[in-house]
Hints:
This protein is α/β, with parallel strands linked by helices and 169 residues long. Helices cover 42% and strands 11% of the residues. The chain has helices at 2-5, 25-39, 64-71, 88-91, 100-109, 113-117, 143-167, and strands at residues 13-19, 46-52, 94-97. A three-stranded parallel β-sheet has the order 2-1-3. α2 (25-39) links the parallel β1 (13-19) and β2. The radius of gyration is 15 Å and the shape is globular. Residues 19-25, 56, 137, 139 line the site of 4-nitrophenyl phosphate (4NP).
Amino acid sequence: MDIINSLKGKEKVRVLFVCLGNICRSPAADGIMRAIVEEHNDGERWEIDSAGTGGYHVGDLPDSRMRIHARRRGLELTHVCRKVRVADFDDFDLIIPMDASNESNLHRMAQTIEHEAKIIPMAKFVDMSLRYDYIPDPYYEGAEGFELVLDLLQNGCANLYEIVSKVIK
Ligand code: 4NP
């Protein structure tokens, strides 16, 4: 991926995870990625955040179901919901949507080709299953949907960490 190679030599990489509501998938990705970075004692090199393309839950903590499932894996999700803003395209190096709808919304918001190049779908980093080329919205699902999202995100974030770490300083 060209955009990943373009991070070569950077001291810090800034990653924004994006979903629709910013209360289920992207705050989970945000919490998982922070935990991975912390495990590697690598907080200096990573800036991590998440946001939603929709504004229905702005100011809220993540969905209580997602918080419960994440807690069972040792993760406390404390992100406060916010909407994606145009400035995010300058403030972050990688902008990572969870599904095709989030992706097309981001492409609509992007102002330049450079902004568009920063958008890489989360599923590109997932290699645990060929069944998912997107991270499915768990909002109207049961426990299985939340567990599936966490499995996909733990796999994808671990790969994202490895891939980017090899490129940056
Ligand atoms: P998320 O899930 O995009 O993973 O945060 C959703 C949360 C809320 C809604 C839809 C999806 N909603 O319609 O309120």
